[in-house]
Amino acid sequence: MTALSLKNLDISYGDVQITHDVNLEIADGESFALVGESGSGKSTVLKAIAGLAPEWTGEINVFGKPRSHGIERAFSRQCQMVFQDPYGSLHPRKTVDATLGEALTIHGIGDRSARIEEVMASVGLDRKFRFRFPHQLSGGQRQRVAIARALMLKPKVLLLDEPTSALDVSVQAEILNLLKRLRQEQNLTFLMVTHNLPVVSFLCDRLAVMRQGRIVEVADVADLKRGDLKDPYSRELMHISAAHAN
Amino acid sequence: MTTLRDWLIDDSPASPMQARLGRFYRIFGALMHNPLAVVGAIIILVLVLTALFAPWIATHDPLRQALGERLLPPSAAHWMGTDELGRDIWSRVVYGARITLAIVTLVAVLAAPAGLVIGVAAGYFGGWVDRILMGITDIFLSLPKLILALAFVAALGPGIENAIIAIAITSWPGYARVARAETLTFKNSEFISAVRLLGASSLRVNLGHVLPLCTSSMIVRVTLDMAGIILTAAGLGFIGLGAQPPLPEWGAMISRGRSFILDQWWVATMPGFAIILVSLGFCFLGDGLRDVLDPKSGEQR
Amino acid sequence: MNPLLEIENLRVTFPTPRGDLEVVRGLSFTLGRERLGIVGESGSGKSMTGRSILKLVRAPGRVTADRLTFDGIDLLTRSERQMRAIRGARISMVMQDPKFSLNPVMTIGEQIAEALLTHQRLPRREVNNRVFTMLESVRIADPERVAKLYPHEVSGGMGQRVMIAMMLIPEPDLLIADEPTSALDVSVQAQVLDIIDELVKRKGKGMGLIFISHDLNLVSSYCDRILVMNTGEVVEECKAGELMNATHPYTRGLIASIPRLDETRNELPVLDRSAWATK
């Protein structure tokens, strides 16, 4: 079954058109990466799916149902997002408990305490962090809270916007392992935006390379591992990334 | 005592209450490291205590006239001398603290929330809501505060209640501006986007998430404005449109003392000192609060 | 030949309510006209090391060292005024993000010229020539047009090249680059690094470079020698090519935790900090 499908998606900010004719099909349970440099429009696609960039034409279907331009409650239980900056994505005046509990209050879900502790345990956060403020947490812990918040409503799809690019490599490894484990345990579908090809190689099944608002290539991650991308631009990205690692 | 402190600065609070109290304790601790803020806080504390215990602190009835003791210089019997009707100035200054405190509190309670709500709404919704609300705000801002207050008092009739209403009406636009600017910086932040993605309504996002972030700068702004409010109230009192005689309002007292300023300097000077002292106190405290509460720099340490 | 920079037992301390916090703990190294990489994670003290060489650590932070000499000058005893003559002219620093380092209300040409004129007097024509040559040497194709632009009118990569031009126009002997390419796309990153490299090697004189970064791979492919820092101490010092033979468990852990382009591991190894923590 298709979890997410984008058809002829053109997204604009005001008069500027950011993406052109984006078409993607992401299967249920798949982990898909959108790769590109800054300004390629990859984050904008994620925002449009989430409902944060409402000026688009074309079609966005989630589990077969077309998505409206705004943010709806029913949609928010299916699809959640994890942001790039663990310092900017948590409310500075709210404790972990308040941040996680907000989702339950909005959707009128009871059993608050037990559910918060359950989700905290599943993202590897000790109970002692429950009433801390964000400034009392490290970057990695904050990102765990952000992931926990996204999981509070038990969504099927997670949109990941460069979830580890602001973290140290040792912490990045922890978060990547966590995401991989969560995906297996909860049968999640991932759509991740990143510029880091090795991260794609670790976490994803397929990838799309974007440049100047267009998708230039869709490939299997197996092709990436073999160094077998077709498009010249994606090959260039791959080569820079490979040269960098040696 | 040490156990209470440990409980407050515990890195892993066990309840929301403890987390919140811990936060206040840290803010309080940081504030106490700033000597000027401590001075300001002490002045304000003294003002509050004076207002509360005025009957015990005052040595005379502030309204009792004794025409035989007119315009006496400061002495052991009358610490700040007496005015033209023989009333004890010290006692009048002490009772005046009540009026001053009532004015600043009521203005803060009326104007700050109004400004906050209008500013947050304008900033968050943008578009025509923003244009209309900010248009009204700009109209109010473009008129000098005292003149506008004068106009309102003239329309409503002189008196302390109307002076308070007039000052409140003239001070909300400043707060609306601050709140709007704050809201604009926060509204596109990732943590607000995250709450919206959870399906929260605009009302919920604004009241529960944007507004609490604006309150600290609002508290700072209001504290710094207190001096101006006191001066405006005193100004209205001075020209006879604020507190009416025989109420011991400091501005009105200066106004009465004006006629004797050269020969009996204490009549106007004593309430003047009180105004300066309290205004300074609010300024010091406001500056200290700004350093501690600034959402961008504060609390990170 | 004397080394360009000698540091012995450098310590940077910040007072906190819970006692003094040492962010750099007894760091020592010498630097010639070479490329030295300092790698570490956030909080390792790598940036503070760079700042303390220029004595840019803000109060209440304190810098102490047994020795801190640059080209025979004892930096520890220099006054703030004397330091200003050294900063820019002899030691320059490139920061992470050009957006925050360039003055938004001055054109690029004016800013570069100012960097030059602060340290020497030159006729106007000469200044313009030097600015244009400098912009050319950071591979800006039409320097005369770019010199008239304001910082917001150029891209991030171009901004960072302008920063480098500004830092290098007084021809310093030592360049400290603190994450100079972290805010840039990978393709631009390579260009900027090439430019710095060219300038380090140019002429007979050359320049010393301290390259501070969190990116182990980048530093190892770019520098001659590497210091790996963790919690304020150097845990590993080696030639760049030999990083893969690193011995310290921290360094090995870091290298292992980076995913590879042809990743086959199902789980990335996570640093076990208890393995070497003795305190």
Automatic annotation (TrEMBL), chain A:
GO biological process, one term: transmembrane transport
Domain (ABC transporter): residue spans on this chain: 4-237
InterPro entries on file: AAA+_ATPase (IPR003593), ABC_transp_ATP-bind (IPR050319), ABC_transporter-like_ATP-bd (IPR003439), ABC_transporter-like_CS (IPR017871), P-loop_NTPase (IPR027417)
Keywords per UniProt: ATP-binding, Nucleotide-binding, Transport
GO molecular function: ATP binding; ATP hydrolysis activity
Residues in the signal sequence: none
Pfam families in the cross-refs: ABC_tran (PF00005)
Cited PANTHER family: D,D-DIPEPTIDE TRANSPORT ATP-BINDING PROTEIN DDPF-RELATED (PTHR43776:SF7), TRANSPORT ATP-BINDING PROTEIN (PTHR43776)
Family membership: Belongs to the ABC transporter superfamily.
Protein known as: ABC transporter
Automatic annotation (TrEMBL), chain B:
Coiled-coil positions: none
Alphabetized PROSITE patterns for the sequence: ABC_TM1 (PS50928)
UniProt-listed CDD domains: TM_PBP2
Transmembrane residue ranges: 36-58, 99-125, 146-171, 226-245, 265-286
ABC transmembrane type-1 domain residues: 97-286
Single Gene Ontology BP annotation: peptide transport
Record's GO cellular component terms: plasma membrane
Main location (coarse class): membrane
Swiss-Prot/TrEMBL keywords: Cell membrane, Membrane, Peptide transport, Protein transport, Transmembrane, Transmembrane helix, Transport
UniProt similarity note: Belongs to the binding-protein-dependent transport system permease family.
Protein name: D-ala-D-ala transporter subunit
UniProtKB/TrEMBL annotation, chain C:
CDD domains: ABC_NikE_OppD_transporters (cd03257)
The family this protein is said to belong to: Belongs to the ABC transporter superfamily.
Gene Ontology cellular component list: plasma membrane
SUPFAM superfamilies: P-loop containing nucleoside triphosphate hydrolases
Topology with respect to the bilayer: Peripheral membrane protein
Key word Ribosomal protein present: no
Known function: Probably part of a binding-protein-dependent transport system y4tOPQRS for a peptide. Probably responsible for energy coupling to the transport system.
UniProt entry keywords in alphabetical sequence: Amino-acid transport, ATP-binding, Cell membrane, Membrane, Nucleotide-binding, Transport
Name of the protein: Peptide ABC transporter ATP-binding protein
Listed GO MF terms: ATP binding; ATP hydrolysis activity
Residue span(s) of domain ABC transporter: 5-256
GO BP terms: amino acid transport; transmembrane transport
Top-level taxon of origin: Bacteria
Primary localization class, coarse: membrane
Subcellular location: Cell inner membrane
